[in-house]
Design brief:
heterodimer, A: 461 residues, Beta-Lactamase, 12 helices, 11 strands, B: Rossmann fold, 6-stranded mixed sheet, 7 helices, 33% helix
Chain lengths: 461, 166
């Protein structure tokens, strides 16, 4: 996993460097070819003017312009030479060209177009036709562009240095950038590796900036929510089963033991078997209720979210609890029920919500020793509110923050059976329904659990 | 039949008991326009007055649980409530208060009897002296205040405090 990640990271860095490099090369190439060609043209123009001036000076001896021309000639170009050839009708261009070691086409162009340019190794040639007082001449000026040579060498050096610097900067940027991009991914991987079945309640930290990484983190956390719920559902079932089924089983075994200890009358046997039947029926009812709770929408199908009415659900939960614990004393308080029943509709998984409420109300019954438990229902504009209030042992204030940790049990629950599974499971289920659960408690005088679930209208908006 | 009713509030859920009581014992065909009034001084410096906004002041005084509790009551007594809103009174004199009652056509005022409305904020002013001196009929509502409830302050309180619904 690590190596592929590094690969992607270095791949991105490599691609970035390549892109940078291509752009740098393109720029430098452009500059390297464009500037010398401009200098060439400029130098030819200078030579041409000098050829013209040389023609005037040497052939016409034009005194009037001599002063101005002196200024032009004040600076001698390197290896400068001006050559004059009288233009005649039957001129032998071939010998002329050979004597200067120039291609014949140079002179042909001069005659045809009046001017020509040529470069032979490091010497630049410019030829023009010049109409002087003694007749037409070909003036050829040649010189070496010392300035350009130096300039090109300097340009080369500068460009190479610039490329090296730009490359190292782009290397730094590419490496830093790819690191920066992959940092959250590495963090996620690191954090995700810590999560195992022992600590499924751990979640990745959301960065709250709604980018793709945040989306990934959210998706991952949602998945963990679902896995944890499924996991806890199983645990919950096992803990409930071991707890709830043992009592009737003990009763049946005890009754059978007593009946078999010696010979009895028929009436006594009938009585014993009747008690055993009663207990077995209780066992059956409990098993059914537990199995119903254990299904919880994870039976190999996609979780079904449907519209359901909370008041209906609460009555169902009440009957389930009364099956599991016939001594429970639950009062459903509908005094603040809204007049409009559609306000009680939520979108949710009925079995999961059933399980969640069974856990909370069952706990309320358990920890208040089957005193009266009030279950109230109301609806605000956004949420359905379920409040479960008992007068039980309460939760110590210092331990309130731990109640959602799996397997945590408050210090005052030693006399009650339980495994600390129900509440985390319930919170997960409520979280899956975008709801909120708040537990407030006073030690010794009771606990109030408040559950808010957004109504269907609220979600669809 | 519609009636405009004024109830002083301190933005606690317990103070909503007055509303609960009023609505439980309403005549069948009666619909109420309820104003939950809180007294608070307007700021007295020019800069503060420049940026003063009544809705912002109300939002800072109110809280989520209180609003949700109002929602629960509104849904429960949907047929008995024509409107319910919170408002701010920032006058200093009895005449100003009388004018406020006149402007909002308040016909009746309901106040808690033994429950003491808290000053929510240093700027809060007690409305009871104004209420007792005004001409509109004032009804006092009594309920038993339980000293300690685990759900104190949270929305759950609306279900259990004081007036028990029938």
């Amino acid at each position: 996993m690590k190596s592929t990640l590094m690969n992607t990271q270095s791949k991105i860095a490599f691609m970035l460097i390549m892109a940078f490099l291509a752009i740098i090369m393109l720029f430098s190439g452009w500059i390297y070819f464009a500037i010398p060609s401009f200098l060439h043209d400029y130098y030819y123009d200078v030579l041409e003017i000098r050829a013209m001036a040389a023609g005037q000076m040497e052939l016409d001896k034009n005194e009037g312009e001599l002063n101005g021309l002196r200024a032009v000639f004040s600076e001698k170009l390197m290896h400068e030479e001006d050559l004059f050839f009288k233009l005649e009708q039957d001129m032998d261009l071939r010998t002329l060209a050979d004597s200067l070691e120039l291609p014949i086409s140079f002179f042909q162009t001069i005659i045809k177009e009046g001017r020509a340019r040529h470069q032979e190794k490091r010497l630049f040639y410019v030829g023009i036709t010049y109409a002087s007082k003694q007749g037409n001449y070909i003036v050829v000026s040649r010189a070496q562009d010392h300035f350009e040579e130096g300039f090109i060498a300097y340009l080369k050096k500068t460009l190479v240095a610039a490329i090296i610097i730009a490359f190292s900067v782009s290397l730094f940027i590419a490496v830093y950038y790819s690191r920066y991009i992959f940092k959250p991914l590495r963090d996620i991987t690191e954090k995700a590796q810590q999560i195992s079945s022992e600590n499924l309640h751990l979640r990745l930290d959301s960065r709250n900036n709604n980018d793709e990484m945040d989306e990934l983190i959210k998706t991952f956390n949602d998945m963990l929510d679902r896995i944890e719920t499924a996991f806890e559902t199983q645990n919950n079932f096992i803990s409930n089963a071991s707890h709830e089924l043992r009592t009737p089983l003990t009763a049946i075994i005890g009754e059978a033991d007593v009946a078999l200890s010696k010979e009895r009358t028929i009436d006594e046997y009938i009585e014993s078997i009747r008690i055993m039947l009663e207990e077995a029926e209780k066992l059956d009812a409990k098993t059914n209720a537990l199995l119903f709770l254990a299904q919880t929408g994870f039976n190999g199908k996609i979780q079904q979210f449907t519209r359901l009415r909370i008041d209906q659900l609460i009555w169902d939960v009440k009957s389930t609890i009364e099956k599991l614990n016939p001594k429970s004393n639950i009062r459903v308080d509908m005094s603040l029920l809204p007049e409009d029943p559609t306000k009680l509709k939520v979108t949710g998984n009925e079995q999961l919500l059933h399980l969640a409420l069974t856990n909370i109300i069952g706990n309320a019954c358990k920890y208040s020793n089957n005193q009266l438990v009030n279950v109230s229902l109301g609806a605000s504009d956004d949420n359905v509110v379920i409040v479960i209030k008992d007068n039980g042992i309460g939760i110590p204030t210092s331990e309130l923050k731990h109640i959602y940790d799996p397997f945590f049990r408050a210090s005052n629950t030693k006399n009650y059976e339980g495994y600390g599974i129900g509440l985390p499971l319930t919170r997960n289920i409520i979280k899956m329904h975008h709801g909120k659960i708040t537990v407030s408690s006073l030690l010794g005088s009771g606990t109030t659990v408040q559950i808010k679930i957004p109504t269907t209208n609220q979600i669809s908006v | 039949m519609k009636k405009n009713v004024l109830i002083p509030t301190d933005f606690t859920i317990e103070s909503l008991n007055v509303v609960k009581f009023l609505l439980q014992n309403r005549p069948n065909d009666c619909r109420y326009n309820i104003i939950l009034l809180h007294g608070a001084q307007a700021p007295d410096t020019i800069t503060e007055l420049l940026f003063f906004s009544k809705s912002k002041m109300l939002a800072s005084l109110s809280n989520r649980s209180f609003e949700e509790a109002c929602g629960v009551i509104k849904n429960k007594y949907a047929s008995g409530i024509a409107s319910m809103r919170t408002d701010l009174f920032s006058g200093y004199t009895q005449a100003a208060f009388n004018n406020y009652l006149l402007a909002n056509r308040i016909e009746e005022i309901y106040i808690p009897n033994s429950y003491h409305l808290h000053a929510k904020n240093p700027k809060s002013i007690d409305l009871l002296p104004f209420i007792t001196k005004c001409k509109q009929p004032v009804n006092k509502i009594e309920w038993k205040t339980e000293a300690l409830l685990p759900e104190k302050g949270s929305l759950a309180e609306i279900f259990y405090n004081g007036v028990v619904a029938n």
